[in-house]
Amino acid sequence: MPNNTKITTFSHLLVWVVLFSMPYVLSYGQEQEIDRVIAHFWIPLVFYAIIFYLNYFFLIDRFFFTKKTLLFVIINLGIIVLFLLLREQLENSFFQDIARKAAKDKDGAGPPLKMFIYVQSLSYLAPLLFSIAIKTTQQWVRTEAERKEAAHFKLQSELQHLHYQLQPHFFFNSLNNIYSLVDVSPDQAKTSIHSLSKLMRYMLYETNMELVPLSKEVDFMKKYIELMKLRVSDKTKVTYNFPTENTDIQIAPLLFISLIENAFKHGVSATKESLIDINLTCKGKTVMFTVVNDNLPKAMDDKSGSGIGLQNLEKRLKLLYANKFKFEKLTKDGRFSVHLEIETA
Asked: What is the C-alpha separation between 209 and 250, in angstroms, rounded?
């Protein structure tokens, strides 16, 4: 902020120095009468500066931006008339030779009085309009910055809300899985609880950042799949393929877990063979994730899972990767597939 103020002050000073030196710059090599320069250039410039800064620092904010337009116009017209009269008085009092010469010009080939007053009035409108233009632009920039800040805050709040939704949803589904193992296989239930604690530690302490390394997400998904495999029968075959090499790709956390949850919820049968196939590949900075499973919809009274997973995912994708993702769902020949592509750069 201090640097911006210094730059603005320097810019204003530079502009006025250039304007005050214009008579000598435009007539380089020619002799100038100092009285004429003062009367015809410097005094009007002082009046222009007063009009500009009076509006810039006070009148525009006080009257123009508060919709008191009529009062704003009346005040500025009064100032312009005052400066026209004051300039005439100064010329008659301190620059008599120039005033007499100007009077001769008016009697001779000079412009009519009405035209002269009209041109002078227009010249005083220039700094007024310029100050309005600058202040309006500044207000627009400030309003746009505030709008973007508000939109960013809303985005972060909504993402945080979706993140908080996902954590209990994930925890609830995992506990359901472990509960089903308690009576059947207590040892597996213990192992599952230990695995779940690792997964929850990741969710609670490492996913609060906007982006995480893709390798950490892959490790998280592998642990989750192994946890889910404990509760399915031998009739369910689960295959997965993830990149083995580390990449420098950073991605929003917990985007793929809902798709894996959905596959285990709707793609597993207790009585007949079923297959879940999970694949994640990378091409440059684009991540492609595909899940294919049998289409075995749950009954309406089945309460396993809250049903918010895919809805949550689509909302997060729109907020985080607008116009940078492709999400496709397809049901064909008794198989359900989802394909997600995300451009991370």
From this structure: 11
C-beta atoms surrounding 127 within 10 Å = 20
Mean pLDDT of the 2-14 span: 74
H/E stretch holding 213 reads: strand 212-213
Buried b (16+ CB within 10 A) or exposed e, 152-179: eeeeeeebeebbebbeebbeebbeebbe
Across 97-103, average pLDDT: 54
**Residue environment code for 213-251, b if the CB has 16+ CB neighbours within 10 A, otherwise e:** bbeebbebbeebbebbebbbeeebebebebeeeebebbb
Place of tokens 């982006």: 211
Contact 280, 218 (CB under 8 A): yes
Burial of 143 (0-12, 13-18, 19+ CB in 10 A): exposed
Q: How many Cα atoms within 13 Å fall on the side-chain side of residue 73? A: 4
pTM value is 0.54
Q: 300 or 280, which is more confident? A: 280
- The DSSP code sequence of 217-233 is HHHHHHHHHHHHHTTS-
pLDDT tens readout for residues 63-98: 988 889 899 999 988 988 888 888 777 766 665 555
What length does the chain have? 345
d(CA 37, CA 43): 9
- 220-252 pLDDT, tens digit each: 899 888 888 877 788 889 999 998 887 889 998
d(CA 142, CA 133): 14
Dihedral Cα 233, 202, 257, 287, nearest 10 deg:
-130
Q: Which residues make Cβ contacts (< 8 Å) with residue 295, sequence separation at least 6?
A: 266, 267, 331, 334, 335, 336
CA distances from 298 to 224, 231, 263, 265, 267 (A): 21, 17, 12, 8, 9
Q: Which range among 26-30, 114-118, 140-144 has the greatest average pLDDT?
A: 140-144
